[in-house]
Amino acid sequence: MRSDTRLSRMLHVLIHMQHHEGTATSDAIAMMLGTNPVVVRRTMAGLRDQGYVRSEKGHGGGWLLARSLEEITLLDIHKALGTPQLFAIGLAGDNPSCTIEQAVNTSLAEAMDAAEAILLAKFGKVTLAELAEGAAKVANGRLTMEHL
Predict the structure, then answer these.
(1) How many C-beta atoms lie closer than 10 Å to residue 113's C-beta?
(2) Average pLDDT estimate for 34-47
(3) Could you tell me if 11 and 77 are in contact, meaning their C-beta atoms sit under 8 angstroms apart?
C-alpha cells in the first residue's frame, strides 16, 4: 500500500512559502515536489477553502499564506486535506461470524482508536511555526528558498 504523503508535503510547502518573497506558483511548487501542477492546484484549493492560503490570479500570481504559521497546526492541515487515514493497518472481514476474528478486530480497533486520539491531540498542539523553528535549527538559521 502506498503511503499518503500529502500532509508532510503540504507542511513542507507552507513553511517554504513563509520564507519566500511574493507568490509561489503551482508550477514552482510542483517542480519542488516532483508532481503535476494540477495536483498542486487541487490540493492548495482545499487549503484555500479552509483559509490557510490564498491565490492571486494573473501575471505574478500564485499562492500566498493567508495566516501566519503560528496560527496553523498540523491538525488544521490534516483536516484541510480531508483527514486522510492515519494508519495502514486494516481489520479483517473475511469471516465476520468468526468469534476469533471479531475479538481480534475489536482489540485492534480499540488500540488504533486510542493511538489515533493521541496522535491527533499532538497534531493540534504543534504549530507550523514550531516546525519552521526546528528546520531553522537544523539549517543553522539559514532557510533557503532555492526550490520555490
Answers:
(1) 10
(2) 96
(3) yes
Q: pLDDT tens across 74-124, in order?
A: 999 999 999 999 988 889 999 999 999 999 999 999 999 999 999 999 999
Strands (E), 40-96: 53-56, 62-65
Cα–Cα dist 15/140, whole Å: 16
Per the CB < 8 A criterion, the answer to whether 128 and 73 are in contact is yes
C-alpha grid cell, residue 39: 495536483
Q: Record the cell numbers describing residue 37, joined without a space.
A: 501542477
Kindly state the cell numbers that stand for 126. 504543534
d(CA 12, CA 121): 21
Closest CA to 61 of 74, 44, 85, 86: 44
**End-to-end Cα, the chain, rounded Å:** 30
Q: Which domains does the chain have, with CATH numbers?
A: 6-85+127-138 (1.10.10.10)
Among 2, 3, 10, 19, CA closest to 39: 10
Element (DSSP H or E) covering residue 130: helix 128-138
Kindly report the pTM of this predicted structure: 0.85
